[in-house]
Amino acid sequence: MNKELAIDAEDITIAYHEKPVIWDVDFQVPPGIMMAIVGPNGAGKSTLLKGILGLVKLTAGKVGIFGDTYERQRKLVGYVPQRTGVDWDFPTTVLDVVLMGTYGRLGWIKRPGKTEIYQATEALEKVGMRDYSTRQISQLSGGQQQRVFLARALTQDAEIFLMDEPFQGVDAATERTIIAILKELKHAGKTVVAVHHDLQTVPEYFDWVTLLNVRRIAGGPVKEIFTNENLRKTYGGKLSFLEEKESSSPVEITPSKGEQP
Question: What pTM, to 2 d.p., does this model score?
Answer without folding.
Answer: 0.84
